[in-house]
Predict the structure.
Amino acid sequence: MHLLDSPIRSDELLVETFDIKHRFYASSAEPMEHKELIAIARENGDDDLIDLYNDHSLGYAENGGSPDLRAELAKLYGENISAKNIVVFPGAQTGMTVTTQAILHKGDHAIVVTPSYQSLEEGIKYAGANFTRIALCPDNDWQPDIAAIEAAIKPNTKYIVFNDPHNPSGSLMSEESKQALKALGEQHDIILFADEVYRLLELNPSDRSPSMADMTDKGIALGTMAKPFGCGGMCIGWVVCQDKIIIEKLLKAQHLFAVCFSRAGEIQAMMALRSKDKLVERNMKVIKENLVLLDDFFNEYSDLFEWMLPQAGGTGFVKFKGPMTADELAAELLQNEILVFPSYVFDCDDDLKQYFRIGFSRRTMPASLDAFKEFVDERRAQWGFPAN
Ligand SMILES: Cc1ncc(COP(=O)(O)O)c(C=O)c1O
């Protein structure tokens, strides 16, 4: 399969809507400013990093990520993970695609838990592997159907891919589901690729369970500076794994795809990581305030929408009960300068065609919600719903 054979679904929308007024779909945390980061680093006593930022070499940074950054990233994980278990990539997106290429071979089989981020599935196609989709279901609180996953395992199944915390639904995989996946991976010798880019954004931090990379040597976890920290511009993502052979494969593959990345981004990432609690607190404040507004709105408009309060991350998946699909609704919203992501963006089955994703981690969300509300109020009679 050629890299560009599949339409890039979210990109089609984003390219069309470069200047759109209301980015109601947006998933990553409120962007940080560099000067804000420097002020936080100074307050935290990280003058060594500020000096390093102002006086660092512009030569190639180390393949796989500089040891100082990898050591800082390892602190996000438990005792099974140290700097040598981490490979840094230019963003999580590159990390997931390169990892899949490095591990899967033509003719292998993979299982993809959907709805999912498109690139999780595309990487499997470029590797020439086959795959089976297993859908999460709102009636099961978006928990994976372990029996269905087990039934889909074939002798050549090498890889199970899932996203937890989950984009778009904002659900968290239960400890029980994670243990069941771990058992499947260990029993059938299958790698468990856990896209954990929304980790650290749990509404209730006590709901945070260990990373899949900590739980088993069959686990690979993906992280990013973008989602929890609002630092996507640093272009730093990483892959974590206990298995030394996989780490060697990733380092080799990285030579082919991305020799190195920006040392400036690495140093900025270390500043953010050393002050991670402060950054997460800043971002959770925005998320919590926005969720109060959304909860009120969806309670008031429960005749038109079904909404499950997310447990983590910056996105929620809303069911539209009106007389058109979420695709059609999104197209009409677009005419009104409001962008949401309808379910087709996430490799969804047809029974989720009434769903669309919204994002709530930006300070601009209340204005997007106001515009959305105005749109809905104008249309409700036309959709056959009485005035509110
Ligand atoms: C589930 C998921 N995984 C990975 C990514 C890519 O992360 P990054 O922007 O750090 O490459 C995204 C971005 O939206 C995402 O939602």
User: Anything to note?
Assistant: The chain has two domains: 9-32+277-379, 34-276.
